[in-house]
UniProtKB/TrEMBL annotation:
This is Uncharacterized protein. It comes from the Bacteria.
Amino acid sequence: MENIFDTTYRQDYLNGYSNGLNPYIDYDEVKYNDAFHSGFVSGRLDYENRNGYIIDGIPKRIVTKKVLEDFLLAGLLGLPPDTDGYTNFQLNVLAKWYQSGTEKYDPNQSMYLFAILEKNGIQVKETYYM
């Protein structure tokens, strides 16, 4: 393994990682170095852990870290999640994040947050699934 503290290695790794997260990009081993390859493999594994294998098809909606955090937050606040357009594989992943949030759900905390948001002119749809 190369020195991960080397700026060039780290930059090539991060470029590979970001390319690996993009399901529309194919990898050409001859074209890139070891750092890019390691990053690409890592990024592709992260993508496939959230969205399923690319060989099974690319879903209409892609699950990213932000989507996972949104589901966790929805669970924390007791809000209904938006599940339209996700595949069954993705829904299983998202359900774990949502459930993790619901386990920490505190109704009083949500009421305080909703009051603050309303005071600032932000309305939250108050539909709860329990």
